[in-house]
């Protein structure tokens, strides 16, 4: 079937759904959802896979309840709508706050992710030559394991709804990681890694991956730093100022700002799986989330997997503040739950969709997701300026482990590496660094935010949420940040066992 | 056996590839999945997915390439194209520095024993009505809010290769029911989760009774903040399944052992590594699990022990690790196994377990699990649902969120007792393709010296 034939069929079924009593319906056709994954493990090609998915997912709103159905068989679109309607009717038997789409905002248009050279047009041999070149540079007698991994996505998605919205997206994404591992003298495996990143500008194709500034140029550095970690002493526990590089800051923001600001979590729709949020609807507009230095946006960063043109309700992606000068001013939302949030808050706290309705495949329904959750650069200079202004601190980079309360109110992170800062100078490296805090105390202790020179866009290829489970890709633009007086190292390490 | 139309297409593709001198593995996956999602005591979403997937792998000497297709499989041309894509990937691949093993069906399998048409057809309406019944009865008993999910469906898996004409096929149904009751003022959460092989396995009365068993201690007592340090802990099924999973992942994966990254790296088979009470086996014949009869290299799966009475017995090798390290594959080229922690000789029933425990923490769930140091088997995880303080053999108070940071060998070397009765813990996720997954675990596990490293002042 051609796209036009599918569109015609879908429109016919929209009429049928309206007649059956549905207030709203939409359809997403994945004409192409292509993926490629290449993994080199100690130089061996361990994964060499290409994938293609094609199918349609439809959603209907019946008496304030959602029904969804998906099929790979485009000859059965009618039956797919029928199943979605049956599901919505079933859901309406145990109704909650009625779901509603709010005012109709029909959109038409097309989004194309900025790409110079489509990675799917690059022959596998060329990809392997590039990745093997990196692997060669990671080799060393003291490196015990090496991993070089690249993953590519290309999607052609068409969206229609009963309001007349008709939008298309042509999206490419590129992800890559390199990692080296070696045991320390205690037998514990230490690691150092880097993910493909950028300054948020530029394009998302093969040219991004092959720009040495953003990936391959770091091979020697991570190898050198691994050897420093292997030779280092463990971080002694204590309270210190904590300087977070973007390689760690992205996950700090992801887990303690991004997830708790998802409206479905705030309203309790993720309780049994991903968890809830310490934020309640009435706090939107007043909660002091962080210090005055904290400015966080759901951004439309040109070169990021969190930029997609139109969300999965067909709404053009918006760029807006979530936290302004430390005050929570908005949350990540779709159209569906705004009325419920306002009713629960007792006043209008959210006025329009946060354009965060996203689905990971044609066979998954859109839920509230992160897009680009970015911290704006500040006025406290470069990393060197921040280090120079620090008496007793550590600098940390790249997560190893994390554990976070179900409402995201407290957290514990372990990172690959820490550098001690004493009297304004970087001194030695520590291994096994960890830190922990309560979310709001922590963000309120933010006292230095680096300038644009410290701001980097980190990709997250694998954020998990929702039932049925969905893996989503997104971005975080993060400057260097300093937090005052944070518990670093295991507090109990000092107590007897 | 698989529907004839698709079976013939797959057979034809295999025969054509063989005629062309190619080594090709074909696997086919078909699911009918449906799920209802509960939030704020309502059904927030009801879904249905009908999906077919084809995986093709082509091997030429030391080169391997693969291709996966999620689309309706309708024609021989489609299959030819998929084989062609995998072959192209293979052609351009880097040769490995070892001889990869080619998949071969060693024994034909045609298994539909786990298929219940009534569970496959269980409607969203029937599921909604059962949940509505539970909520209607429980809601008036407190300031409660309900959330959860209920996934049911059927899965077909088929595997054949150009090595011979034999085929492996299985069809089964499965379900996983999870309901969370949250007290809206005090913020505590109770959870009931059940595993399902047949439509009749979930009954409202059973769910209500399970919540009613838990509610009084939570209703009548304030949260208890325990102290940091080593303590006696009584683990429940979900936590035990997590602990067993961590022990396997950190200690019994052949590749990690070969690369000296597992906590068993310094040990050899025959060494006593855990308490004598501990036996961990992958056993498709265990009635608690979903029983995967073959893996995706065509190996017939049979009972496989990694630890027997505390003694190191085996390591899990998928075919790539086996080939690389000169070992035999063990039937573990698949997403999940049929693992179990064998029952102990302790009395059956949670009541008997807590009486035996005396003073302890009851931690039936561990969430937010991470493995910061697999070499030592070190993990972290936090209590979440249904956790209680045990004093003089009685549940006396709910406990606040409590973090455990310990190692697998330490936990399983400090076993005091285990229930003699096992239960199923359903581990199925709904990421990607439907993959029923369950573990068989004793209903309780009592351990001493569990390292508590953080105690919150909230649930
Ligand atoms: Zn996430």
Automatic annotation (TrEMBL), chain A:
This is TldD/PmbA family protein. Keywords: Hydrolase, Metalloprotease, Protease. Residues 118-213 form the Metalloprotease TldD/E central domain. Belongs to the peptidase U62 family. SUPFAM superfamilies: Putative modulator of DNA gyrase, PmbA/TldD. Residues 34-88 form the Metalloprotease TldD/E N-terminal domain. One of its GO terms (cellular component) is cytosol. PANTHER family: CONSERVED PROTEIN, UNCHARACTERIZED PROTEIN TLDD AND PMBA.
